[in-house]
Amino acid sequence: MTTPIKKYLLLGLIGLTSSIQTWAADTPHTVSTSPAKVTLKVGYLPVLDHLPLLVSQAHDNDTFQQIHIESKMFKSWDEMVGALKANVVEAAFILSPLAMDLFNQGLPIQTILLAHRGGSAITVKHDLPIQTAADLKGKAIAIPHKKSTHTALLSYYLNKQGLSLADVITKVIAPPNMQPAMQQGSIDAFIVAEPYGSKVQLDGVGKTLVLTKDLIPHHVECIVIVKRDVLTKYPAAIQEWVASLIRAGQWIEQDKTTGSHQVAELTAKKSLPHSATTIINSLQNPTDRISFTDLNPVLADFQTIVDISKQANILEEVNLKEFINDHFYRQTQIQEK
Known about the structure:
By secondary structure, the chain is α/β, with parallel strands linked by helices. The chain folds into two domains: about 50-120 and about 220-335, Periplasmic binding protein-like II (D-Maltodextrin-Binding Protein, domain 2), CATH 3.40.190; about 120-215, 3-Layer(aba) Sandwich (D-Maltodextrin-Binding Protein, domain 2), CATH 3.40.190.10. It is built from 14 helices and 13 strands. It has helices spanning about 5-25, 50-60, 75-85, 95-105, 150-160, 180-185, 195-200, 230-235, 235-255, 260-265, 275-285, 300-310, 320-325, 325-335; strands at about 30-35, 35-45, 65-75, 90-95, 110-115, 115-120, 120-125, 140-145, 170, 190-195, 205-210, 220-225, 290. The strands form three sheets. Strands 1, 2, 3, 4, 5 and 12 form a six-stranded mixed β-sheet that branches. It has a five-stranded mixed β-sheet with strand order 9-8-10-7-11, with helices on both faces. The longest helix is centred in the last third of the chain and has 22 residues, at about 235-255. The chain is globular. The termini are far apart.
């Protein structure tokens, strides 16, 4: 069952109201910085899954010919969803089941690219004798959102031991609040994107039970979504952005080979609230914990997420042929040949 954490929800609602009022006042919907350049407002969370957005923006925003990116960090997924519905942002790096659920509800969005593959872990309190999925029975486990890839992956992991989500107590907690909740004894474990799992391990608060890449290799998690009217009106701008995001992913992977120091220097305490040490540790231990190399939005990979999400009772069937728009990815591949 899902137990709401009232104080976190209240903070999220206050943050959303403030974000919408401040940001909407700054810039009207899809404004142009010049007649040939379109501004796209993009939401993200302080997770490493969203590094391609931040690297692309840092590397290419000043030299883009068609587009200008304004990124907006949110502390919770509900805050981001509210911003999408209110047209405060026209694009987002977002959990795939949550995005597909919004699509099913009628939000006019499509996914154009993966943000990454893999990248999360089930982390347990360091002093608890938890070694398998069976040991999680009756434990309080934090998830970032009910309709998250993490909920589906947790369900999948439990099912392998004959358990289900009904056998644990799930609590929706925003990612930045999970370590404090574990330290305060409110939860026994959590499943979330990096760097939160590796950070609690580094701080001696928790230990990794399993990496999600080892549950379903190469799995989809966060994806890039854009409002359909933007895709229709500004295809050249979106094409330029997609090519940059793909290059950014390749750059992050290359930087891993020399210790991930450049990406840490680019984002630590700037576009992300984390220290360089935290970012480096998350990307290096192990280096394949999260992958940015294959961002192709393949229908079969999405179907896997739909299937485990349906098994977890958090999502209904999705018209993936309508939801996935791989045109921009394919065009990038053609242009690079």
